[in-house]
Amino acid sequence: MARILVVEDEPSILKLISQNLTLRGFDIEIATDGETGLTRAREGKYDLILLDLMLPVISGWEVLRELGNQGILDRVPVIVVTAAAREEDEKRARSLGARDYLVKPFYIKELLQCVSTALSSHNQAGRNKQEKPSRRSS
Amino acid sequence: MAVREQRHLAIADSDFAWLRLAIVLVTGMALLVGMIRVGSPMVWLIIGIAAVYAVANSFLDLHRRFRSIFTYRTYAFLDLLLITLLVYFTGGQNSPLFLLYGIPLSIAVLRYGADAGAAYCLVTTALYSSAVLFHGLNGTFHWLTQIGLLWALYLVMAYVYYSDDTRQDKARRRDELGALHRAAAAPIHTGDIPTVIGNILSGALSATNCCWAAVYLYEEKDDRFTDCYSLSCSDLDSDVKHETPWVAPSDILYTVIYTNSPRNTQDLLSDKRFQNSVLNNGIIRSAVIMPMFAPGAKRVGVFVLGREEPHRVSQHELRFASTLAVQAAVSIHTAFLFEEAKTIEAAKEADKLRSQLLGTVSHELRTPIAAIQGFASSLKCADEVEIPKEMQQDWINEIEQNAERLRRLVTDLLDLSRLESGALRMQMEWQDMNDVLDELAPDLQMIAEGRNLVVQVSDTLPLIKCDAERIGQVLRNLVENARKFSPPGSNIVVGAERYENGIRVGVLDEGEGIPPEYHDKIFERFFQIEGASFRPQKGTGLGLAICRNIVEAHGGRIWVESSPGKGSIFYFTLPVTGS
Fold first, then answer.
1. Which of A35, A37, B101, B393 has the most C-beta neighbours closer than 10 Å?
2. Which of B28-42, B294-308, B382-396, B539-553 has the lowest average pLDDT?
3. Is the pLDDT assigned to residue B248 strictly greater than 80?
4. For this chain's UniProt record, which GO biological process terms are given (chain A) (predicted)?
5. Torsion of CA B133, B136, B140, B144, to 10 degrees
């Protein structure tokens, strides 16, 4: 089953996301500040990262930029889950490489929808990547 | 005799006095060296008169006090008479004191011009000739030679005077350029209107012989003069802004503004147009009034240059005054525009802050709502996925807690906005802080949950006027803050003591402390210490901002003393009398 990293500092929201995803069979790891989140993302193997933008130590923006710089965004899709509701925030996050942008508050179905979309498109992309070399070898 | 007054003087009044003293000294020296042998009591008498006379008009400043009697012409004649007497008694045409005539002659030319010098020479010739004739013609030098020498000296001095006149023209032009430059550059360095006008006025005074300069600002909208700025040469450092006198509609100032044409008067006391004018102020006798227009023919006001004495205004003076008025109008207009721009800038800044605050508030409100909506919608999914019973219960608790957090946030926001707008009035009553603390103690004990709360009071506390309810709110906030930032089992101490003209209440904790750079910022709303290793979970981010507002509404002050790792003490003061 897919492994998901949740980077979120609000305990209530962290609990909400992680418990719901665990119930649905996902393998969840958590980080409660930007720095830990970044270290986990760099070292662990995840299929998806859920990232808050307002984080202690290093902000979510910084984490997103670093993930992009280090090429992790190419392997792992990131969904930003944030209370920053302004359109320019979403545009900026997407331009930094976020796959999706979910504004708090949200219904749990919306989150699950985002997660499954991100995972399936990611798997699609992964399969495409694997197919390319095989075509070349034939 | 055309005595030139109000020129740019090559010799100042004080120099003139000193030169006069020089006459006496030279007289004395000459007598000592050569004439003592004459030994006539008459000579000594004349020397005495000369000394008294010169000292009197040099140092007692007679010519200022009795200007009407002691004109320079009187002095000049007295000087000549004195010298002539000396010449007569010391040898007539052979007397070396004849040379003394050169001194007043030089003064006359340099101070009053070549015309005055010529007149002086004529009178001298007449006096000297008669002195010589009375004394008898028996000298080595012919008296006509002496007179020839005198006129030669006059010619030299006149030449010096005229070349000096050119020099003075240059100096005047330089002064005028300087004044124009100051008027033009005034708004560059400062946008402050009184300073700009002050610069224009002092520039005008230094470039002309005027003793008083003023700017009356005109407001087109209300059709009236709003502000008066003036500067007098006797007090250049004084404030230029003055109480604006009421300007009658018939005042010549309005005539100048309406007709857009300058007015001037030789003597305003005898000029009907000035009879009821604010310019008839006892300071000036003659005046030039220039209208001031800004770009777009906007009426800015009038510019006035005045003198203490009656004076006929020359063409050159009029031209200069009008140029200066044009420049002054542009500069004052610029200063006004600059001030306006600053106001707009400030309004924009306030707008930006407001929208920033709105953004923060919306963000803070979204978080508890997200938890409530998220958990509630999760519970609704119970039919799709099995949720353990305890988890369901936990989620319901979460919903409740977040609803409570939302309620507190809204209450705090409302409190803060009412405090900041001044809508929340303090119910001031005389209180004994010991009683207030006693009453609060159980409440604080509960808030400090898990920490050891100690309340210390002092016996000598003065009664203070305060709103006990609001002070209780401050203390609850501070104790709650202390708990959030300190480990379980540590001490929290609340105490009050006498301080300056009131009391000081402190709340001490043994937590992680606050870096000095944040000691002010923590009292701002929604401020979070950046990079802090954890974030207080239940706070609204408004507690300390509310505390500060309440304390300041009491006329007190709130601050924190802390260093990282050593805990913090939050202090606030309350003056005895309240705000």
1. A37
2. B28-42
3. yes
4. phosphorelay signal transduction system
5. 10
d(CA B412, CA B415): 5
Q: Name residues whose C-beta falls within 8 Å of residue B330's C-beta, 6 or more positions apart in sequence.
A: B184, B294, B295
Cα torsion through B305, B309, B315, B316, rounded to 10: -70
Residues B547-552: what's their mean pLDDT?
93
Task: Give the range among A88-92, B153-157, B259-263 with minimum mean pLDDT.
Answer: B153-157
Residue among B79, B71, B64, B89 at smallest CA distance from B21: B79
The pLDDT value recorded for residue A133 is 47
B379 to chain A, minimum CA–CA distance in Å?
9
User: Which chain A residues are closer than 8 Å to B537 by Cβ?
Assistant: 10-11
Mean pLDDT of B78-97: 75
Alpha-carbon B92 to chain mean position? 64
pLDDT, position B370: 94
This model of the complex carries an ipTM of 0.89
| DSSP track, B366-390 | HHHHHHHHHHHHHHGGGGTS---HH
Nearest chain B residue (CA) to A20: B378
In angstroms, what is the C-alpha Rg of chain A?
15
Fold of A3-129: Rossmann fold (3.40.50)
Cβ contact (<8 Å) for A12 and B368? yes
SS3 category, B347: helix
With the C-alpha atoms ordered B376, B380, B382, B384, is the resulting torsion angle positive or negative?
A: negative
Task: Please tell me if residue A116 touches chain B, with a CB cutoff of 8 Å.
Answer: no
Query: Per-residue pLDDT for B577 more than 90?
Result: no
- Predicted confidence at residue B13, as pLDDT, reads 55
Q: Give the other-Cβ count within 10 Å of B61's Cβ.
A: 14
B516 CA: distance to closest CA in chain A (Å): 18
d(CA B529, CA B515): 9
- Residues of chain A in contact with residue B375, where contact means CB-CB under 8 angstroms, are 12, 16
DSSP code at position B175: H
Length of chain B: 579
Using DSSP's 3-state secondary structure scheme, residue B24 falls into helix
> Which of A92-96, A112-116, B257-261, B528-532 bottoms out in mean pLDDT, i.e. has the lowest?
B528-532
DSSP classification of residue B8: P
Q: Tens digits of per-residue pLDDT, B310-346?
A: 888 888 888 899 999 999 999 999 888 888 898 999 9
Can you read off the two tokens belonging to residue B342? 């600053």
Q: For residue B262, which phi and psi values (nearest 5 degrees)? A: -70, 160
Three-state secondary structure call for residue B215: strand
CA nearest neighbour of B23 among B2, B45, B44, B47: B47
Weakest mean pLDDT among B49-53, B111-115, B546-550: B49-53
Query: Rounded to whole angstroms, how far apart are CA atoms A49 and A40?
Result: 10
d(CA B558, CA B574): 9
Looking at the DSSP assignment, which residues form a beta bridge with residue B504? B497, B573
The domain ranges of chain A are 3-129
Determine the Cα–Cα distance for residues B98 and B148; give it in Å rounded to an integer. Answer: 12
What b/e readout covers A92-118, taking b as 16+ CB neighbours within 10 angstroms?
A: bbeebbbbbbbbbbbebeebbebbeeb
Q: Where are the alpha helices (DSSP H) in A1-138?
A: 11-23, 34-43, 60-69, 72-75, 87-95, 108-137
What confidence tens digit (pLDDT) does each residue in A49-68 have?
999 998 888 889 999 999 99
Output the DSSP codes for B64-110.
Answer: HHTTTTS-HHHHHHHHHHHHHHHHHHTTGGG-GGGGGGHHHHHHHHH
Whether a cis peptide bond, with omega within 30° of 0, leads into B368 is no
Q: Is A16 within 8 Å of B378 when comparing Cβ atoms?
A: yes
Indicate the pLDDT class of residue B515, thresholds 50, 70 and 90.
confident
CB atoms within 10 A of CB B129: 16
